[in-house]
Amino acid sequence: MDARVSDLFGSGNGHGSGSQGVASNVKPGNGYGVAPKKACTKNHKKTKSRFSRNFKPSNNTPYLPPEAEEGNIEYKLKLVNPTQYRFEHLATQMKWRLQEGRGEAVYQIGVEDNGMLVGLSEDDMRASLKTLHRLAEKIGADITVLREREVDYDSDVSRKIAEVLIRKVPDDQQFLDLRVAVLGNVDSGKSTLLGVLTQGELDNGRGRARLNLFRHLHEIQTGRTSSISFEILGFNSKGEVVNYSESRTAEEICESASKMITFIDLAGHHKYLKTTIFGLTSYCPDFAMLVVSANTGIAGTTREHLGLAMALKVPIFIVISKVDLCTRATVERTVRQLERVLKQPGCNKVPMVVGSTDDAVTAAQQFAQSPNITPIFTLSSVSGESLDLLKVFFNIIPPLSNSKEQEELMQQLTEFQVDEIYTVPEVGTVVGGTLYSGICREGDHLVVGPTDSGQFHKLTIGSIQRNRSACRVLRAGQAATLALGNFDRSLLRKGMVMVSPEMDPTICWMFEAEIVLLFHAKTFHKGFQVTVHIGNVRQTATVEAVYGKEELRTGEKAVVLFKFIKHPEYLKEGAKVLFREGVTKGIGHVTKLRPIAQYQPSQSEDE
Ligand SMILES: Nc1nc2c(ncn2[C@@H]2O[C@H](COP(=O)(O)OP(=O)(O)OP(=O)(O)O)[C@@H](O)[C@H]2O)c(=O)[nH]1
């Protein structure tokens, strides 16, 4: 992690006039990534890169990057009247591309394998799209034409290329699934935007839309989100929104959706920073959406939230809300302010303002290909202006991990992270959390721990629910609630893991981490106490040693030995670490574990 990300956590001085330096020379929206003409014609060799996403061709750059062997993008010059043999081959290929994209694939029609935008006549395009429909029908997939465009060639006849989204929910899955953490300063309009997206009714500017998102009485009274809440927005196979406007229950939404976006609504107020960090580290979001109010610009926790998402390597996009309250000039000022911060050397992001449906399609694709691209939406939850562009983006945006990574995680032993514990009448103890690896079914026997003495208890999984609907099989990466029957709730705590009994989890009181100090008022040294976040682990730890240094200053790196103060934890080498105490903040990763067998805490330490 670039230590310059610490700039985002500092006092905030000097950022407004920040540098214009862009480390990458990538230019969004005008053919970014498009190989130069010469290089492209020579380079017929297929590249290996995954998700070699398509790019917005401008009139004078008639090339896409060469088609990649892997990933979910397929280029087809034309698909006119294929023989039966070729048709079968094309169907198999489509299945494979869908598998690569975990249920989604993009076909570029009228494009050669080397990326050349040849284009098709009206008739050939119609015939090709017809073949594509037949192919999709054969394998039970749905297709949506994302956009068609003319390619600018010297010929008199108009020639077009088309970009088509194919979607098929894998047979053993209910829907495609994406998680988006929602960040932003207090009152920036996060809950309102979620209310509008998920309930389908615009806000009145006085908080109507957010009302049904609140979970606790004190939140209704103060109008603040303090707990983490989940909201769902579905899309059906035609790319239309499925939300509470037509469906009464979450079950109904789940039934008719082929793609589901789960929003993790995190609190904006600084007081709830702990919850915000927990949401980012524990719920493994695919993306973060940072909401910024157009009339206040970068204010309060905005910069810090941006820094946290970047430190945790969660790809981020930005929504500037409340544009109905300001003049165009004010909105533009806020956009420019954000662009400046995003381009700072510590961020190295490439902002991309989304102004049309075409931009939203390009943004979704480029964002998936390079998390440095940062789409910026400007919208209003009251007038509804540009809300559609955000919906187009959500419909197209693919999950970041590919099918192979997902497959590998599913092959591993079961590990479920316990984030919430409830007692439900007539059901008993229920835990909420995320399945990190493996798969989990009703009736599975797992062990849960570690306890204060480093032990694990046996348990059996009862029913499983996702988004309040029953689920037979839970797969790596999915969040769910699991019923544990009459298992004693007092033996559980947040931060525990439920793992396969065959796993031999490493439990430790102490661990080493290579860290960079992002912000500290004075210095950071031995004896200092901080709250450590590692995945769903959240506990106070003491700095036992700072190797090779007496003390650390802001921006400096070191290997540090931490010791938990309450109980040992299950950790993994390489896991991301984030710690904080007041204004002190740091990030890094676990480099070495000191397993419990090597370190037995004394009675007084193990309280
Ligand atoms: N005019 C206008 N008002 C908006 C818009 N979005 C939100 N608001 C209003 O702004 C106020 C704050 O919105 P919230 O959605 O509660 O803000 P939040 O970011 O969720 O705040 P926390 O939950 O405290 O972090 C409410 O009164 C909303 O009605 C918008 O696009 N236009």
TrEMBL record:
Key word Ribosomal protein present in the record?
no
Q: InterPro entries from the xrefs?
A: EF-Tu_GTPase, EFTu-like_2, GTPBP1-like, P-loop_NTPase, T_Tr_GTP-bd_dom, Transl_B-barrel_sf, Transl_elong_EF1A/Init_IF2_C
Keywords, A to Z, come to: GTP-binding, Nucleotide-binding
Q: Region annotation Disordered: residue ranges?
A: 1-67
Cite the Pfam families for this sequence. GTP_EFTU (PF00009), GTP_EFTU_D2 (PF03144)
Keyword Membrane listed: no
Compositional bias, Basic residues, is annotated for 39-53
- Domain named Tr-type G is located at 175-403
Q: Which domain of life is it from?
A: Eukaryota
Q: Name one GO molecular function term.
A: translation elongation factor activity
Give the family per the record. Belongs to the TRAFAC class translation factor GTPase superfamily. Classic translation factor GTPase family. EF-Tu/EF-1A subfamily.
What is the name of this protein? Answer: GTP binding protein 2a
- From which organism does this entry originate? Mastacembelus armatus (zig-zag eel)
